[in-house]
Records
---
Amino acid sequence: EDQVTQSPEALRLQEGESSSLNCSYTVSGLRGLFWYRQDPGKGPEFLFTLYSAGEEKEKERLKATLTKKESFLHITAPKPEDSATYLCAVRGETSGSRLTFGEGTQLTVNP
Amino acid sequence: GAGVSQSPRYKVAKRGQDVALRCDPISGHVSLFWYQQALGQGPEFLTYFQNEAQLDKSGLPSDRFFAERPEGSVSTLKIQRTQQEDSAVYLCASTRLVVLTDTQYFGPGTRLTVL
């Protein structure tokens, strides 16, 4: 059974204070690790897909990295508009069609 | 349309009532997924359609939950005899391709509250 654990549950940063969110996973044959952002009252918004260890992707102030056991979402010089819940999800070779999500990290960036 | 749309956005039901939740996927998207998201939790998979065929319904929590996509576009999730534990946000997602690694695009969700 695929498992995803995200840490920390909540993170408060000052504007400009860089940090990282962690996603630890257990999956049989990774077929994709996905990062989403979710704002209150909205559906998850796609950020990145990573497929293999060593892969990195960047978008504005966000950078996602992947190892065989975990993924990090690095946030550089965050702004208040980066405040959201960040969700990590995996699909493995035995997962069929389903994504397995973690519980998310709630990020608050104070001005 | 520009994105996945869902209706209603909010639904309040009395325990024991039946409800129907609608999902309009992005035009031309082949695959459609339903997820259930409890407060403070990540989404949990319910079911998956490829066109009109329901290929995976292993996440449906009980036989009170039923989903359909008769013409391969709009989908409806029906919950019969609602219970308080059914209170959650129900999310719909669609993908352009059949390939299961394709990006899932989510709608805004329907927040169901069962009193």
Note: The longest strand of chain B covers residues 88-95.
---
Amino acid sequence: GAVVSQHPSWVICKSGTSVKIECRSLDFQATTMFWYRQFPKQSLMLMATSNEGSKATYEQGVEKDKFLINHASLTLSTLTVTSAHPEDSSFYICSARDPGRNTGELFFGEGSRLTVL
Amino acid sequence: AQRVTQPEKLLSVFKGAPVELKCNYSYSGSPELFWYVQYSRQRLQLLLRHISRESIKGFTADLNKGETSFHLKKPFAQEEDSAMYYCALSRSSNTGKLIFGQGTTLQVKP
């Protein structure tokens, strides 16, 4: 099956620093990737749609200057949490659809847990 | 606005009992609906989608447009079914954008 991989799987940083999370599609090319955020025991909240070669599309209420998304290649999207604060601590999950499969299925990364001290 | 509602946070049943995880949605158009599952310490993965009308691991789900529901059912629960289940809605399979419900934890007791 299609594989999406995230790195790092967990990161701890100090308040005020920036953290970058990578999302890669390992065996397919993804022109679009999706970034979700999940709070403990809660649902996945769509943050933004990452578009290869163009600007990301952010969901209402998500600060684009806070959560910088770059999709520089067909297999890599990055999410940078800038000037992180404790309230940014969360589980961030990326996903992508394999255009070679016309099923609508999203393949998910293993997630990245961010803890801001 | 699109919304997916899973009213139960936790559903606890004994092995062999029937299971029904509820999902209701609101969307003015013709949605595509999915059930995703997350087993302990594993990533989220697709369980089934309404378009394919398939049965996966004994689970089925029927889209009821009149009741705007897409409940997940299994006649006889197994311990290995214990997991977090998410109902999700997409406006179009072409966009891939999914809106998730709150999730239901299924606990199957021996």
Note: The longest strand of chain A covers residues 44-51.
